[in-house]
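Let's practice the habit of predicting before peeking. Look at the sequence and jot down your guess about where helices and strands might fall. Then scroll down.
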Amino acid sequence: MTTKHSATVLVETTETDMFIVVDDVRIAQRGKSGTPQARRWVALEPGWEAWDEDDMNVIAIRYKGARVH
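Done guessing? Here is the structure:
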């Protein structure tokens, strides 16, 4: 039996950083300018992946291989 959970997903910005937040947990952070991770999402929690699609108008998110958003 598979249980579906409707996750709350949002992008949080501070004065210096940008995060993807899923169910109140920061799962990824936008890479800093001037680093190899610039303009990419860097996972903060194990099992999470995030990337930009459609020329950065859509953010795709996976958790342990399953698409979340």
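How did you do? The radius of gyration is 12 Å.
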